[in-house]
Design goal:
Blueprint lengths: L1 E5 L13 H25 L3 E4 L11 H12 L5 E3 L16 H6 L4 E3 L6 E2 L6 E5 L11 H7 L8 E7 L17 H9 L5 E5 L5 E2 L6 E3 L15 E8 L2 E8 L4 E9 L2 H13 L6 E11 L1 H15 L4 E4 L5 E4 L3 H6 L4 H14 L3 H13 L13
Parallel strand pairs: 1-2, 2-3, 3-4, 6-7, 7-8, 8-10, 13-14, 14-15, 14-16
Antiparallel strand pairs: 1-11, 5-6, 9-10, 11-12
Helix pairs in contact: 1-2, 6-7, 7-10, 9-10
Bound molecules: manganese (II) ion.
């Protein structure tokens, strides 16, 4: 028996660092991921799919986004179990209870509304047991609660669908909703469950040593700190064996880089790094710079970032980790020809630059405006 374990689709998620154009493509990519998952199910002979929470970014989604997501869901050729998570809890305003959802979602889209076992349509002796979130802050371990109420069913393969951080990985174990890893492992060892499909961590994570307790991670990257995003898991349960196969779904990439720039070679190497990135239009970069450069190089760096920012989905300077000293030198003086008032201003600013960052910024601007080496609008190759 095979199925696909996925989670954290976060349909409708927006990211502030994306331009309007990139944001539209990113939103569409989240919906395309649903279609890709459906294709994977077909390709690998998976009989159903479980989505372990945070299907939607929130319970308030625009009508077009919701309709497009449901349309993609409807096209998945196998039954799909949706678990409400912390982003889309099954509360009074739940998106799963909305008229739009109920009207449009087809019968094979199954929302887990409580923890009673649900038979998988068309698959004999397989049940999904879910631990849905009913609010954004549960007061108990919902997985433990679902297990407690579970009657034994010999001969039935059971998959628990849960959402939240397990205690062994949680930064805050005092949170009442934290999931007990030991209880889940015990249920697996006793044969009460055959697999636990978790959501909430956006990185693919195998928890503990059972080989049956996993976070699938998000099928499309959502943040810079995710270790193994863009994945889903193909799970095969066969008698006593559980085989996991990671599937690559999304192809967006978020990277935080750090660069030390002290001369033209460093800048050239950085430009090469940018050039070598594949799928630039789906790549989000934030770059922190350290080092010490003159005005000419600062102008070239500005120009490079500006030109490349049109190619990437997002390319931004990471202010928090940037500590780049711009120190005007003799080369800068020689590179531009100023006279009269401009020259006097330049010299005044130069004198202040050692102790005043604003003076340095003004010098950078003057340098660019005066067309100093490479300081025209396109910069490189000038
Ligand atoms: Mn999530």
């Amino acid at each position: 028996m095979k199925f696909i374990h996925t989670s954290d689709w976060q349909i409708g998620m927006t990211r502030a660092f994306l331009s309007q154009e990139a944001a539209a493509r990113y939103s569409q990519a989240r919906i395309d991921a649903i279609r890709a998952l459906g294709q994977m199910a077909e390709e690998h002979g998976a009989q159903f799919m479980v989505v372990a929470g945070d299907v939607f970014e929130s319970n308030q989604l625009s009508a077009p986004t919701l309709s497009r997501a449901i349309s993609a869901l409807n096209a998945v050729p196998v039954p799909v179990f949706l678990l409400p998570g912390n982003h889309d809890p099954l509360d009074a305003s739940s998106i799963f209870r909305s008229k739009a959802f109920r009207d449009q979602a087809r019968e094979h889209i199954i929302v887990i509304a409580d923890s009673s076992p649900v038979a998988v349509p068309g698959v004999a002796n397989v049940e999904v047991v879910g631990a849905p979130w009913f609010s954004k802050r549960p007061g108990v371990d919902l997985c433990a609660q679902a297990l407690k109420a579970l009657e034994p069913a010999p001969g039935v393969t059971r998959i628990l669908l849960g959402h939240g951080q397990v205690d062994s990985l949680s930064p805050d174990q005092a949170q009442p909703g934290v999931v007990s890893q030991a209880l889940l492992e015990q249920a697996l060892a006793e044969g009460r469950l055959q697999y636990v499909a978790l959501g909430d961590r956006h990185s693919l994570t195998n928890v503990g040593n059972s080989g049956r307790l996993c976070y699938s991670g998000t099928p499309l990257v959502t943040d810079f700190d995710e270790v193994d995003p863009n994945k889903a898991l193909l799970v095969e349960l066969d008698n006593d064996a559980c085989t996991l196969m990671p599937l690559t779904i999304g192809f967006w990439d978020f990277q935080a880089l750090q660069r030390d720039i002290n001369g033209v070679e460093d800048l050239a190497a950085f430009a090469q790094t940018l050039d070598a990135i594949r799928g630039q239009e789906c790549s989000v970069l934030k770059v922190g710079f350290t080092g010490s450069i003159n005005l000419a190089l600062a102008a070239e760096l500005d120009a490079l970032l500006e030109a490349q920012s049109h190619v990437f989905a997002s390319l931004k300077r990471r202010e928090r980790t940037t500590d780049l000293a711009v120190i005007p030198d003799a080369l800068d003086d020689n590179a531009i020809a100023l006279s009269g008032y401009a020259d006097a201003t330049w010299k005044t600013l130069l004198a202040q630059a050692a102790t005043d960052d604003t003076a340095t910024d003004a010098l950078r601007l003057m340098y660019r405006l005066a067309g100093g080496a490479g300081g025209n609008d396109t910069g490189r190759g000038a």
